[in-house]
Amino acid sequence: MAGKKTRKPQWRGIFPPMVTPLLDRDRLDAPGLERLVEHILAGGVQGLFILGSTGEAPSLSYRLRHQLIERVCGQVAGRVPVLVGVTDTAFVESVNLAVKAEQAGAAAAVLASPYYFPAGQPELLEYIGHLVPELPLPVFLYNMPSYTKLFFEPDTVRQAAELPNLVGLKDSSGNMSYFHRLQACLADRPDFALLVGPEELLVESVLSGGHGGVCGGANLCPRLYVDAWAAARAGRLPRARELHDRIMAISGSVYTVGRHSSSYLKGLKCALSLLGICSDFMAEPFHHFRAPEREQVRAALARLGLLK
Amino acid sequence: MAGKKTRKPQWRGIFPPMVTPLLDRDRLDAPGLERLVEHILAGGVQGLFILGSTGEAPSLSYRLRHQLIERVCGQVAGRVPVLVGVTDTAFVESVNLAVKAEQAGAAAAVLASPYYFPAGQPELLEYIGHLVPELPLPVFLYNMPSYTKLFFEPDTVRQAAELPNLVGLKDSSGNMSYFHRLQACLADRPDFALLVGPEELLVESVLSGGHGGVCGGANLCPRLYVDAWAAARAGRLPRARELHDRIMAISGSVYTVGRHSSSYLKGLKCALSLLGICSDFMAEPFHHFRAPEREQVRAALARLGLLK
Amino acid sequence: MAGKKTRKPQWRGIFPPMVTPLLDRDRLDAPGLERLVEHILAGGVQGLFILGSTGEAPSLSYRLRHQLIERVCGQVAGRVPVLVGVTDTAFVESVNLAVKAEQAGAAAAVLASPYYFPAGQPELLEYIGHLVPELPLPVFLYNMPSYTKLFFEPDTVRQAAELPNLVGLKDSSGNMSYFHRLQACLADRPDFALLVGPEELLVESVLSGGHGGVCGGANLCPRLYVDAWAAARAGRLPRARELHDRIMAISGSVYTVGRHSSSYLKGLKCALSLLGICSDFMAEPFHHFRAPEREQVRAALARLGLLK
Amino acid sequence: MAGKKTRKPQWRGIFPPMVTPLLDRDRLDAPGLERLVEHILAGGVQGLFILGSTGEAPSLSYRLRHQLIERVCGQVAGRVPVLVGVTDTAFVESVNLAVKAEQAGAAAAVLASPYYFPAGQPELLEYIGHLVPELPLPVFLYNMPSYTKLFFEPDTVRQAAELPNLVGLKDSSGNMSYFHRLQACLADRPDFALLVGPEELLVESVLSGGHGGVCGGANLCPRLYVDAWAAARAGRLPRARELHDRIMAISGSVYTVGRHSSSYLKGLKCALSLLGICSDFMAEPFHHFRAPEREQVRAALARLGLLK
């Protein structure tokens, strides 16, 4: 296939999944958003991913999602590519979001499987085959089985990767055996970007040939993740390990307050608020940490040397 | 509480979860819809529930959902109450749907938990406490853990039931022990309607004091389910068992072609199409049965005496 | 098949899954055991099932299991049939247990699927086909998916039911739709006994034609469950409902102290100890309730009028 | 604690989980066993682990397990340490197995959580606290949640690690974030060995500081896994990646014939039989591959250059 030969590897590096700063459930924290975007970009990241799970996209009204797309694309103004989550249970709404993103200047769309009805793999492949060509942007698949109840199986990805505008996959399964199977399946497609979601797996995935990470912690300390990616990519093992340990220290303290699976998201927003970057308001069904949890996060940030 | 005393038991009977007849992913099968509504109402049902799981609501665009609400409410014109699914991952979109439903003349809204992020029970209760008062209609909770990853625990329901416009719960968990725990929890609230989802459990739930069913098969044979409900309610055991066996015969043949969890929905739409009622087109991520499965459904309908 | 015609329906009624009274992890509470057996038999039960999940069988040494089989069969001395759990991950150990049970005078063996490796249905059917003929007793299958990770699918049961010494199935899935599918599958086999595990489902399963129950609460109040079974079997609906409510009152209080799935077992043993019947010691990995939980169980028993 | 200071790091390297060569369900393939042990030892492994999941331990009679312990310990005769799986649902049987292993000359016992009843973490910790001191050998915990339904949470491991004879943990969860949390938790305990189960994760776990692997493929090509471990340990990244790719090539072909979770085990035994090392008979509930699957495995071995 001629097309394949001309595809150049790109989409390497750190693409932080930006949290969505909110004042209430349907109102952006506009100054916080502005500060957050600049804070992240100052860390040298290779792109910015909005409206993912970390961005609470499914909990936001379409009106607010459109507003966020416009503001962020406008502010970034081409300094780095902006990726926009367009996952939806309704085909047409995914198209609508992608059209909006393209008009606003986004560089790519990110698509998880529909997450209400669990489809079989042949149906999932057909869904991708119908939807991706309708999206006016390069597209990343987004493997997020804990929320969608569905894996993109390696064979499905292999076949989907033939679509001209499918450029990569972000894997948030946390299952590195699966990630390695994807790598083996796509060994002849260096242009197809394989990014990892959980930041705890960033270093090892890049050491094994992965292309980068969509690391939530890069909202907080973007430079750390960029450095870890670069060290792993260059095979500088002692440095990569040192930065990995630092990532684990954040993960093991900021994201583990309380006992719910939402601790990661609440801890991250709480930390950003403690650093004075943006509000920690969360859209339903979540609520932000109350005082006792906030104190735990504050103490963790202090121990990590992240509080000025 | 004075309010409680004046609440009268209602919402008893069969409220079919209507399939959504489609010509393609974003276009209603308008004549099929009209025929389907009349077919169901002719069966003597006590209400009509649109935009539930059987109605493929999460797979439909908001534009089409609004159109469906208008058309169905217009056609039913008060002959029976229309219940409208308003479940959404975004709070504001649920409110929007309920406002639309109220304006169109719907009688109630039906609300499952948000289904992307799994909330804890305290968060779920808070979510209900914030959202239900904003909905301009009586509200049913909709327990659907296989799709939402979340149970409405009995304590949560007990507390939520204090909200003035929360009038009942539809349980599609398939777990009758849970249903009985709900009944025990709400023994002093005969006005709070407990409806069961899976039609295989209709008779036993009504025999145990449940108030009715949201039975998918009532798209096909509405009278059968109304009769089964009435027999069970009256304690006419031999008749109730006979009708239960008939329901099991449908369930065990029409809904079990193929091996996916979507067999129920595909079989039901296929059967409606074979009976000449409406199109069997399905919204992504599903597709309708191809010829071999269609023949199996045809044979099942013939054995059941449902093909003219 | 000639054999089928001569099989007479039997195995109707209540077969309590007896708890195993222990003094420590490898020592029977012999006087407690003796009292418990008499207490249960005095309730008019149709049989006694030892070494099931409620009997903590997998947690007991083989030596102690053998001892229990001997003692109980000896004490019961043919007054009712004794059923013995022979489930094991190792084929040969299941045979050994069944041989021991047969020698001691047991009337039937009860067999769940192997519970470490999850087999597919064809392998499960083959396993049954190999093992059941080697067991020198009539055999019940025992569907317990929450512990074994595996369902006996209706087709598998239908085929297995051809084995001459397979006489029934105990379903502890809690899924009444599944139970009804089994009933439909085996409609021409009234000799094949379908018993239900969870006592919350006893009345409805018998109303729908089920043959009885393996109710844990019958360790505590055997007569209640026998009466509920008889009322449901006779179609005496008001009486059956009243007894069902009583069962739910026990289930909703005695089995729900604490938040673990082991609450049922701990609550039951604790209640038996509070009634002076036997020790509440539990084999690892569980431990008996400490004082605060014990007080909650005591209060529940008092409210239920079960404490003298 | 003085004891801690004197503990020397050991248990580094590759400890193959040996398959159990069988002629039928209760008979060892004695010559095959002998060949297999020598084949593995010739690869330079650091130890040998018998009676794990790959060894089908739960499916074997106790008699046969004892026989296997004796034969293997006798044949190895101290050339490398032999680790013996003693996991059981019954406390006493675990002790019995460990006593037998110690008498035969085994070097360590390996203990997963009881796998029928799911315990809570406090109960699991108490269980370890009671059982491990009764085992007359150094003990490894074995985290195998897909079969046991239970994780050893990092806090539980941290506390358990205080037991004098608890020397390490084998993690077969496949979740590297969990593995890294364990590493962080035990950063001050370099003597506590952290081994990884899935061979697809061997290289990355060792690059991150893990101590070795319990790799099923080392039954087949022991040298490959020893080399991969050594390269990763030495930080020779290009070499480690090359060997990792080779491991993935085996994993992606030999272990993926058929669609069941048992494909790994069946493929591995089938491959050993095709190489003339031992029988591929499997204990119930599994059966060995039939001719078509066998041909697929043969073709995979040929492609991999493993068939002479």
What's a quick, concise take on this entry?
The structure is a homotetramer of 308-residue chains. By secondary structure, chain A is α/β, with parallel strands linked by helices.
Descriptive notes:
Chain A has 13 helices and ten strands. Chain A is α/β, with parallel strands linked by helices. An eight-stranded parallel β-sheet of chain A has the order 1-10-9-8-7-6-5-4. A two-stranded antiparallel ribbon of chain A has the order 2-3. The A-D interface holds A 174-177, 180-181, 183-184, 198, 200-201, 203-204, 207-209, 235, 237-238, 241, 244-245, 248-249, 251-252 and D 174-177, 180-181, 183-184, 198, 200-201, 203-204, 207-209, 235, 237-238, 241, 244-245, 248-249, 251-252.
Tags for this entry?
308 residues; two-stranded antiparallel sheet; 10 strands; homotetramer; disordered N terminus; globular; 45% helix
